[in-house]
Write a structure and sequence with these properties.
The complex is a heterodimer of chains A (about 110) and B (about 525).
Chain A (H helix, E strand, L loop, with lengths): L2 H21 L3 H25 L6 H25 L21 H5 L5
Helix pairs in contact in A: 1-2, 2-3
Chain B lengths: L1 H12 L4 H14 L7 H29 L2 E2 L4 E2 L1 H25 L5 H18 L5 H22 L7 H35 L5 H6 L6 H17 L7 H9 L2 H21 L1 H8 L3 H24 L3 H24 L5 H33 L10 H4 L1 H19 L6 H13 L10 H32 L19 H25 L9 H7 L1
Helix pairs in contact in B: 2-3, 2-5, 3-4, 3-5, 4-5, 4-11, 4-15, 5-6, 6-7, 6-11, 7-9, 7-10, 10-14, 11-14, 11-15, 13-14, 13-19, 14-15, 14-19, 15-17, 15-20, 17-19, 17-20, 18-19
């Protein structure tokens, strides 16, 4: 196993995640893209730990706390999106959740509602 | 005796988190009454929470003066952290005022209080965090708390189903961007770990490896994540759309809890920034461009908009931009580094002194008129003269406080600009290209202030408007009856702004009326 190849793989995952977030309009696609970025970071941490800092437990501690916190936040978002506490799901709407838009309305925030 | 010793040991062990302990204690008591909807319980816990946060604020200052600096593996508590904690606790008191006015009648009021207090606790842990693990984890917990607070404030606000859907859609967009930014931050830390197993930004500066390309890449990703987190142009869509639709108390949560978290991370990384920025033309160029875009687009957006919440949302960008310009000045050697760090805190304070009273009043108008627009302010000066005058002073205070550096002397703010203008290009203020760059920075700063004044004059004109067209008659501000609390609240802010401005003006003549000499305080950071 070569550290360089692992790093290339993790970079590819990071770019894939960023692309997914920039282009997806669906909630699940966005969440999955975020997970891909997180996996890329975990690969980085573990590969560096394995090849460079063999005795370090710092990366494992970091990953444990960081993942626990991040997954808690992701869970909150997913729960909020799918919770059915109101009549929201009775209306037929386009689920457009693209995070970054560059239309005139999105730049200046102009809209009627 | 054993019990007293135990208490003493615990008290010594939890410094600098006395304030957090007080708030946590109140949250613990609230836990047993979270389901209560009784009015008396609500009043009791509201007063209890106000008292707790105020005690935490005072306790932080007193204990710092007694015990001094603190540093261990996870935390580092210095004067800048004291200022930051002070700003957040002060903002917390004001947010609590807005929440209690808007949400007191709701059944879930005590639950909202509980979530609010826990969010403040995690924020007070985030501010002194110095270790990467602690910085990241406490930041994510703080954002999670802000998300819960935001959604609970916006639940059941009487919107139609389609409006509720749109609000929900934009809430998810906004916080998914934060999740993305946090995932990027994790990626940044993981790349930095490849070059060194150092665990804090201070260690990075002290180590020789800071120029390593892996660290540079990691820092680039970290700054990129901050750019995304703060919704800086052109990524502002989710923020701008959400702010217009959300309930008014939750807007203050975004402005004074969510954004400060990002700005404080920028402050934590300031020494790394200065290490690379000093003498580096490209970094300073990038900072000036980001600042220029923030100031120009933020102020133009505010001029274009007729929604008060959106105007305030756009204004916030000019606050970022002005603070960033100071970082550019510091990188060029025109200003000391501490002054740039303090500029962010000063700008946040200036924004707080204007936003809270103005937003509280405009939210009342919005509630009455069922619409969020600048026309809600028409006739205020005519019908409520006293409030109108207070509001005019508060609005004028915003650019004047920004100009005078809030708690710091006018000369601190204007000094770099004077240096750039007065010193010939070949000799000072950096020579050649640097001088040209600094002209760009000074020009941006002055343009920002000019735009800000134009925007403020526009709002003042709305407050003072006496001739109201037929279509606006029903929304006239003068027809709203306002409780006495609004008068007291606005008067307090008005007096505070006048006191700060008087202090800043007197400083030009070497007369100090502030209890603490600000310039000495800056030197100590």
């Amino acid at each position: 196993m070569n550290l360089q190849y692992i790093n290339f793989f993790s970079l590819a995952l990071l770019l894939l995640g960023i692309y997914g977030i920039s282009s997806s309009a669906r909630f699940l696609s966005v969440i999955i893209s975020v997970q891909i970025i997180i996996v890329s970071s975990v690969i980085n941490f573990f590969s560096f730990s394995l090849f460079l800092y063999n005795l370090s437990s710092w990366d494992k501690t970091f990953i444990f706390f960081a993942l626990a916190a991040l997954y808690l936040f992701s869970f909150l978002l997913v729960f909020y999106n799918y919770s059915k506490q109101s009549g929201l799901y009775e209306i037929d709407v386009l689920g457009d959740l693209r995070l970054f838009k560059l239309s005139k309305s999105d730049w200046w925030g102009e809209d009627k509602d | 005796m054993i019990f007293l010793n135990l208490v003493k040991n615990i008290a010594e062990g939890i410094y600098p988190f006395y304030g957090s302990a007080v708030i946590l204690f109140i949250a613990f008591i609230l836990l047993f009454f979270a389901l209560s909807g009784k009015k008396n319980a609500k009043i009791f816990f509201l007063v209890f929470s106000f008292a707790g946060i105020s005690v935490a604020l005072v306790l932080n200052i007193i204990m710092f003066l007694q015990k001094g600096l603190f540093s261990n593996y996870l935390f580092s508590y210095d004067r800048l952290e004291l200022i930051k904690t002070g700003i957040i606790l002060f903002a917390a008191i004001n947010i609590l005022v807005v929440i209690s006015i808007n949400k007191f009648e709701k059944k879930n009021f005590i639950k909202i209080l509980l979530i609010f207090l826990l969010t403040i606790v995690s924020f007070t842990f985030y501010i002194p965090a110095s270790n990467f693990i602690m910085i990241f984890t406490s930041l994510v917990f703080t954002i999670s708390g802000i998300f819960m607070l935001f959604t609970s404030l916006n639940s059941d606000i009487g919107y139609t189903v389609s409006k509720e859907y749109i609000l929900r859609n934009h809430t998810i967009r906004f916080f998914t961007v934060s999740l993305f930014a946090l995932a990027l931050m994790l990626a940044g830390y993981s790349v930095m770990y490849g070059s060194t197993d150092l665990k804090s930004f201070v260690q990075l500066i002290e180590a020789e490896k800071i120029t390593d390309s892996m660290i540079k890449t990691g820092l680039f990703v970290l700054y990129g994540s901050l750019f995304v987190y703060l919704f800086i142009f052109p990524l502002q869509s989710a923020y701008i759309k959400l702010l217009k639709r959300c309930e008014s108390a939750s807007a203050t949560v975004i402005w004074f809890l969510y954004f400060p978290a990002g700005l404080f991370l920028f402050l934590k990384m300031r020494k790394v920034f200065f290490y690379f920025a000093e003498g580096n033309i490209y970094i300073i160029y990038a900072v000036y461009i980001v600042a220029f875009v923030c100031i120009a687009a933020g102020n133009i957006g505010a001029v274009k908009s007729s929604s008060i919440k959106r105007i305030l949302a756009f204004f916030y960008y000019s606050v970022f931009g002005t603070a960033l310009i100071f970082f550019g000045f510091s990188g060029s050697g025109l200003l000391e580094e501490n002054m740039a760090a303090i500029a962010i805190c000063a700008n946040l304070s200036a924004a707080a002194f204007t936003y809270f009273p103005f937003h509280l009043l405009s939210a009342k108008m919005e509630q009455h008129n069922k619409k969020d627009e600048i026309a809600n302010l028409y006739g205020l000066l005519k019908q409520h003269k006293y409030l109108g005058v207070c509001l005019v002073i508060i609005l004028l205070g915003f650019p004047l406080l920004l100009l005078s550096g809030t708690f710091f002397s006018f000369t601190n703010f204007i000094e770099p600009v004077i240096k750039i203008i007065s010193v010939p290009a070949e000799t000072g203020a950096g020579s050649g290209t640097f001088s040209l760059l600094n002209y760009l920075g000074a020009g941006t700063l002055m343009t920002g202030v000019l735009f800000l004044i134009i925007n403020v004059v526009r709002l003042i004109a709305a407050v003072g408007k006496t001739r109201i067209s037929a279509g606006d008659g029903s929304r006239e501000a003068g027809k709203i009856s306002l409780p006495k609390f609004y008068y007291i609240y606005l008067t307090l802010y008005c007096l505070a702004i006048l006191f700060l401005l008087a202090g800043n003006i007197l400083k030009i003549f070497d007369i100090s009326i502030f209890p603490l000499e600000a310039s000495e305080f800056i030197q100590m950071i």
